[in-house]
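Final report, Chapter 2: Outcomes

The project's central promise was a pipeline that accepts a single protein chain and returns its three-dimensional structure in a standardized token representation, suitable for archiving and comparison. That pipeline is now operational. To close this chapter, we reproduce one record exactly as it appears in the project archive, with the input sequence first and the structure output second.
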Amino acid sequence: MLRKDFYYDLPQSLIAQYPSQERDMSRLLVLDRKTGKTTHVLFKNIIDYVKKGDCLVINNTRVIPARLLGEKEDTGGKIEFVLLKNKGDDIWEVILKPGKRARKGARFVFGGGILSAEIIDVVEEGNRLVRFFYNGIFEQVLDKAGIIPLPPYITSNIEDYERYQTVYSRYKGSAAAPTAGLHFTQELMDRLKNSGVKFAELTLHVGIGTFRPVKTENIEDHRMHKEYYSISKEACEIINETKSEGGRIIAVGTTSCRVLETISTDAGFVKPGEGETGIFIYPGYRFKAIDGLITNFHLPESTLLMLISAFAGRENVLSAYKEAISMKYRFFSFGDAMLII
């Protein structure tokens, strides 16, 4: 299957630069994956489509201020780091620019000197391994020295970075938000719970690789980045009980979907654990765990668009996207949502 099979033309004006005024007042396109039929409501009306006995699986990761703007220690030349993976012992894998300033042994300072770093190795795809030096607790230093990294297609500044966190975010570690969850308010979650809908939590720390484009013509030649995940015994019991009782498992976001499909048996049951997933889901994949998916509108030719095309059918998805564009839906991270059932 070719990359161009997942192209669509999106007017620049429909790329959302700001979150909606109220989280659950975003628009929601409901897509029936069997018939291709679409329905248009507000996100708060999702309660009409999720039934008693269903389970929503949410990703409770929290975005860290993973973007660091600093200077080369000896020359003062500007540098930008984005933290990717914590390797332990104050060593992180980062992407950075400009790369020519970041040879092995080079040192950089951030936040007026409260944080410094030394390049200790060059690794895959030109990323670097760096060791950080600081006084105190790293997370607290990072809060002062770092910036929340917004996606490259968001060119405006936002006043409240909590709007780029889900209301249920708990565990720090992501370089990007699991954006399908941004539409939930605590009030909406309480209403869903009171109606008999169950919630199960997992953690997948979203890497900046989620924004990397597919460059190979044949999508099967694309290699996915790996991301850390964990899921508890309690969450697995909720999911497995839902399956056994005939309820639907609805993943909130492609991140939750990827974890569930990584750990699921052929019968759709899951076991607790942690690890890394580099699963690449595209048309032809047979889903084991999920029965529904809440997701935002994704970039043309992206792995996320390929994933939802695998779940709902490429023709159904591209037709729904065309309809959403004609109705001026807002796209990407701060945009509107889809429910695929």
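Archive annotation: The longest helix spans residues 314-326.
This record, like all others produced under the grant, will remain available to the consortium after the project formally closes.
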